[in-house]
Amino acid sequence: MVYVLLGEGFEESEAIVPVDLLRRAGVEVALTGVTGERVTSSHGITVVCDRTLREVDEEDLTMVMLPGGLGGVEAIQASEAALGLVQRAADRGAYIAAICAAPTVLARLGLLDRRQAVCYPGMEDQMLSAVVQRGAPVVVDGHIVTGEAAGSAFAFGLKLVELLTDAETAQRVCQAVHYHP
Question: What is the pLDDT of residues 26-81, one digit of tens each?
Fold first, then answer.
């Protein structure tokens, strides 16, 4: 199961586009509310989550994904339960994915130490010892996947599909949505 952590103020496209692509590929995904079942995005769209953070079943966890949006990132950063889940997932070798401002959460947890990563332009100073790959839409380093920004949501989501299924499935989904990288 992929758990997508949604905090108040999350960036819509960075959450919903990858979720849509993963579900089209047959990957189980749960929108997971950090502070409750209903979460409002940075542009005022309220989402009813599939689960709350308290309902996460770590036994079936294959990936934790963190969308950006400054409010959403702040909500994740302020949640000991969310940070604990990310850390436990990393300790187990599960995939950790973060896009836009969210890679800074991974940096603060020490998960990006000397790893290649990307983040929203202008936030590089918050990436600590990460080896930032400026301008890359998506960077994969081991079990950690980072994406640059909202404009990278399709490339980011398709990379997650590829990692959790295979390249053929990612190509099929790419063609089905008529994404032209």
Answer: 999 999 999 999 999 999 999 999 999 999 999 999 999 999 999 999 999 999 99
Report the DSSP pairing between strands 63-66 and 51-52.
unpaired
Segment 119-148, tens digit of pLDDT = 999 999 999 999 999 999 999 999 999 999
3 state DSSP class of 150: helix
Task: Compute CA 58 distance to the chain's CA centroid, rounded to the nearest angstrom.
Answer: 17
The backbone region for 47, taken as left when phi is positive above 0, alpha when psi lies in -120 to 50, beta otherwise, is beta
35: helix, strand or coil: coil
Tell whether 178 is covered by a domain: no
Structure tokens at 57: 């079943």
177, part of any domain: no
- What's the CATH code of the domain at 20? 3.40.50.880
> For the chain, how many structural domains are there in total?
1
DSSP state string for 50-97 = SEEGGG--GGG--EEEE---HHHHHHHHT-HHHHHHHHHHHHHT-EEE
Using CB atoms within 10 A of its CB, is residue 43 exposed (0-12), middle (13-18) or buried (19+)? Answer: exposed
CA distance 120 to 3: 22
Q: Is 119 a catalytic residue?
A: no
Residue 124 lies in a domain: yes
| Residue 181: alpha-carbon gap to chain centroid | 20
